[in-house]
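Researcher: Going back to the complex we discussed earlier. I've cleaned up the inputs and rechecked each line, so this should be the final set. Can you rerun the prediction on the complete assembly and write out the structure?
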Amino acid sequence: MSDQTIAAGERAVTRSRTRPEANRDENLLEVEDLSVSFVRRGAQPVRAVDGVSFVVRPGQIVGIVGESGSGKSVTSLAVMGLLPQRGVVASGQIRYRGQDLLTLGAKKLSDLRGREIAMVFQDPMSSLNPVIPIGTQVTEVLLRHFDVSRGEARAEAEHLLRRVGIPDPGRRLKEYPHQLSGGMRQRALIAIALACKPALLICDEPTTALDVTIQAQVLELLKELVNDLDTAMVMITHDLGVVAGLCDFVNVMYAGRVVESAPRHELFAHPRHRYTEGLLASMPRLDHPRTEPLRPIRGTPRDIVSWTKACAFAPRCDHADEACMSPDLELVLDGPGEHRMRCVHPAPLASDVADDD
Amino acid sequence: MTILDAEQGPIDEGLFDPPAGDERGTSLWQGAFRRLRRNPSAIVGAVIVVAFVLVAIFAPVLAPYEPAGTQWISQVTPSSVPGPSPGHLLGLDSFGSDMLTQLIYGARQSLIIGVVSTTIGLLGGAVLGLIAGGLGGWWDTGVMRIVDILLSIPSLLLAVSIAAVMGRNPFAIMIAIGAAQVPIFARLLRGSMLGQRRQDYVLAATSLGLRQRRIVMSHVLPNSLGPVIVQATLVLATAIIEVAALSYLGLGSADPAIAEWGRMLVKAQDRLQSDPRLAILPGICIAITALGFTLFGEALREALDPKSRR
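Model: Rerun complete. Updated structure for the full complex:
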């Protein structure tokens, strides 16, 4: 998507209380050629995110999938402006409604955060302040962004907790995080993140710390809430199951770059990049014999070469050959619905890819 | 793998919550106090501390005589001081006052000086630590270098010089002891705040657009106070010892009528061989009180530290 040029960069900064009427055709978030490097004195800079581009339209759910270390979380922190101040070099553009978040002043960024863009973190235990009651943590964000009284904020907080499915919210408001179960805490965090009805919600593996039955409930809740509020969502996950149930559009990341991006159905029906193909093939399937071993992708994400030399996935790929050793492979348009991939030997379009080995 | 299945409606996990029992409505501090109650050394420490405070407050009621009454001076000879007797359970001191009365009033003096000087140290240190840990950057560097300089001066020496400069007024000794504790509190609070600032909940608060001041004051600070409060109880113990030390050095309160454990030690010096009781009794009082605060402080530290919980 890097070739999409957007002329809206000069648009006036919108800071009114009421959100501007969303133009459905206009992109809400445009990440363009985002690179993030961690620099340490006396060491080679580590490029965690390398030229990532994607767009999020209003109300759309976009997935970013990848293994640990593929740069997906760093991407989300960059969008929130939460990267550490020191030792980090970020380049490219992150445009929210036309204004570049990377160059936006701290004050304006802080006004946007929570009000327009909010985030749900991975670990609900450590993301809530242990010494402050839940109620205060919900009301403080309302008091920060809206001109409301404490009483009004409290009533709204109670309503929010009820909305995310926390029973007896009046009592829960007075309780401390350690008195809530893991699932309950994540619900509270979701309530806090959605308190100001943001236009964009970033979820960084929101269900990783939860057990499987609760995961499904939390995802169902998120889906319902973003639908109701017409909030766009960026779902960062390593779990293809989450993507399958939730996302409209999926970006697959590997070693800091997007290797494949496509609408959900297109991606699951015709995975083209060998990494995506491997991920899908490695999922256990109910319609396969139980004795059949799982098919992992061999190697670990550490077995990479630099994108500037070859395809980073080549060392783990069964189809790699000389052609894969060319530097900086392009993300090429390949297939319907903006299906793009970065592969020299893409999986054939024949339907049963799992047998092609 | 989680595959969302719309047909399987969300079960409210609240129904399956284990009964939380006595965890209801408890904060971190309340939990700490529950753990304290189960710790024997905390109970011993608390009993000593409470007894000490009660003795200090109710000194006029508990003491058998008026303080600094020298009416029995005729019984004191250069070679001996009358020991315990039915009228004077712990005997007389070298000025002819009742020993028990002097010790009881001494508790009052130690408590006042200990609490006031610890408060001075705590407030001073907290302000510096808050500036350094809250504002960061150049503020941090600047404040901490000043603190480092203060810290490089031995605390007793610092207290001695402050007491010497300020003269023998009753507040001098409190300010002297308090000032010596400022750098310790400042370092402690700053370090604790820096540790807390890296926590996820601070990142989460930032992601909600909360203002920096709000994050520091209502998120970082309350979470950083634990070690500081523990240190305060421990400093109370050292303050009581330091009061004794400064009095011993002749920098204590100028009014000889005010009973003070440290000065009682000084006065006992001349008669150490003939009447060691005169030094041993105030010595025991100082030791037990310091022990009480130390036991309680240590237990509090353990109760507040999630890593040392058993």
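Model: Worth noting: The interface with chain A takes residues 1-6, 8, 10-15, 17, 20, 23-28, 31, 199-201, 203-211, 214, 218-219, 222-223 of chain B (CB under 8 Å).
Researcher: Good, that matches what I expected from the previous run.
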